[in-house]
Every structure is written in structure tokens, then in C-alpha cells.
Write a structure and sequence with these properties.
The chain is mainly beta. It has one helix spanning 2-37; strands at 73-75, 79-80, 88-93, 96-100, 105-109, 119-122, 134-141, 144-149, 152-155, 166-167, 177-184, 187-192, 197-201, 212-215, 227-234, 237-242, 246-250, 261-264, 280-285, 291-295, 299-303, 314-317, 324-329, 332-336, 344-348, 360-363, 368-373, 376-380, 385-391. It contains 1 helix and 29 strands. Strands 1, 2, 27, 28 and 29 form a 5-stranded antiparallel β-sheet that branches. A 4-stranded antiparallel β-sheet has the order 3-4-5-6, with no helix packed on it. It has a 4-stranded antiparallel β-sheet with strand order 7-8-9-10, with no helix packed on it.
Amino acid sequence: MEKVAKRTRVLIGSGVVLVLVVALVTALLTTARDHTSKGPKPISTTTTAPTSTTNPLPTSTTSTKVPPTPTAFTWSAPAKATQVNPSALTCPSVSLCVAINSVGQLFISPDPKGSTPWKLVALPGAVSNPSVSLSAISCPTASFCVAVGSGIYVSTDPAGGPNAWVSQGIAQQQGQLSSVSCSSPKLCVVLDSANNSFLISTDPTGGPKAWKATPIALFALGYSGGLYAISCPTVSLCVGVGGLGFAEISTNPTGGPKAWTKTLIDPTGGHPGGQYSNLLSTIDCVGENFCIAGDDSGGIIVTSDPTGGPSAWHVYVIPGMGGSFSCPAPSFCVVATGSSTTGLSGASINPLLGPSAWPESQAAPSGYMSCPAVSTCFLLSQNGTVQVGTAS
């Protein structure tokens, strides 16, 4: 009996110890869980100007590796390129830039960094027909471009001269085809602002039957209610922006009207109170997880989840900064003014982080800009001079 009693006492003592150990481990796990559930503090979005949304900004880009902050972004001295008065510019590589103007002319350079004058190319019929005009161009590769305006013109050899640009037999009688974005030679989306619709093709060289119209419901009647710009970085993402802070977004651009979702991404604009404070006039998306847009009152609208609904888009303001954006990667964006001679330009290595991510700004040169590579940009001015922007 004595041996049994001793064994019983030992077992009871071990049970007490086991209970105490379990209680201690549970307490430690609870403390750790409570600590980690709080997460990092959100980044401050305070600026010297009011923001137009309370959505917190994301704390990082889609990449975990962010390049070092540029110590400077500088533009070279203007060098004469051509007599152009451009309406748009695109540079698919550092060795090709294509500009257009409103009278159906293209200006092409295979050496934008050099001193060789840009080559003038007039679209077929542009000389004899004053109604031929251009307003936008997209070149996803150096061997494929689509220019639009009073019609749609496609080239598989952009530097090949006038005959290399082929009309697709689509005439716009009621207004300009105002924007175009091609993710590749297999998908192009053209914005028909006169009819508030998209013209979409998976075979852009296939003639008029290869382009299908997709109507989009008006945001509202009047100037501020239409669409103004489109960006299609991949075949499974397109974002069109326009008046009243709305965007049309699709993960299946060829799927018809029901494949597009209207999303309010800029409720009040960068500086609320203006007549068209949240009119979105520019958009640039890279991949499927980054877009940056600008409104006409200085608002910068960014997202790392374009299809995530209104709360996934975030607005901030940098006083004095405005214009068009060019982003060769989610981790590098440059902003410059268009035809205006006022305002600031700058470069950001992580625009999702708000004003603090733009380390330096400077007086913005005037013109149209395209950045074909990280840290390299080209800007063509109204008077036909070109400047090279470099981040270091």
C-alpha cells in the first residue's frame, strides 16, 4: 500500500506541473498573438494639401525589393529634334521614339539620345485631306504601333516610312478617337470619346471587321462625364478613366459591356471645389498590380490592386505637381507637365507610399514624356526640342 501511495503522490505532482506548463505556454501564445495582430503602424498620409479620401495608402509596392532612392532626377539641355508641335509621344525602347501631331504627321527617331533630326512621316492622305488627324499613339514593342485620331493606323515597322502605316478603314466622323493602349500586338483598346465606347481588337491589322465596339454608359451628361484615357498593361487588365472621378475597369476587355466595372477612384479631386477637380485625364498601369492616375486639380491616385474596388485606390496631393505619368516599372515613375510651362516634375521609386516617396522635384519642362526604361525618359517639347531625363 505504501508503494501505491507514493506512486499516486508522484503522479499527482506531475499533473500539477503539466497543468502549470500548459497554462504558461497558452499565456505566451496569447501574448504573441495579441502583439502580432496589431500589425505595423500605417504610413502617415498627411500632406500640406488636403487629401480627397481617407483610404490609407499601401505600405509597399508589389515587389519586396525597392531600388535605392534616386539622389537626383535631371533633364538634359534641350536639343533640336524637329518641328513638331506634338500631341503625344511614346518610346517603346531607348532606341526608338515616335511622336504625333494633330495634322496626321508622325516624327520618328531611332536614336532619341543622339543629335540626328527626327524623321517626318505623313500618314497616307494627310497631305491632301486636312481632316486626317492624330491624337494618341501606343507602341507596346519597337515593331508594333497603333496611332489613332480621325482613324486607326497600324504599323509593324514604325520607322519604315508612310507606306508602313496602314489605315484600318475606321473613320471617326463625330469626333476624335482620343486614346489608345495596346498591351501587345494581340490586344488594342481605343477610346472613342465621341460615342463613349471602346473599339477593341485582338487582331489590330485585320481591318474594320477586326475592331469591335463596346459601349460604356455615360458617367453623366456634359464635359465632365466622359472617358479621357485608357491603359491596358496586359491582356487581362484595362483601366479607362474620365470625369467625376470614375474609372472603367476590366479583367476581360473583349468580354463586352458587362465585363467592364464602373469604379469611383477619385471622389472629390486633389483640390476639392474646382469646376472639374476630379476629372481624370491620365492613367498609367504596369502589370496587373499597379496603376497611377492624375486628375485636373493636382490629385495623384495610386493602387496596388486595380480591381479591388474604390477602397483599393488612394489619393494624395503634392502641391504644384501635376501632368502626365510614365512608369516603366511599379517601382519607378516620373511626372512632367504637358503643354503647360508651370508646375513641378519629379521621380519616385515607390509612388504607392505618398508624398514622401517623391524625394526631389524641380521646375517641369513643357512637353510630352515617355520613359522606356527605369531612370531614362524622353520629353519632346512644343517647339521641337528633345530632353533626356536621367535618375541617379
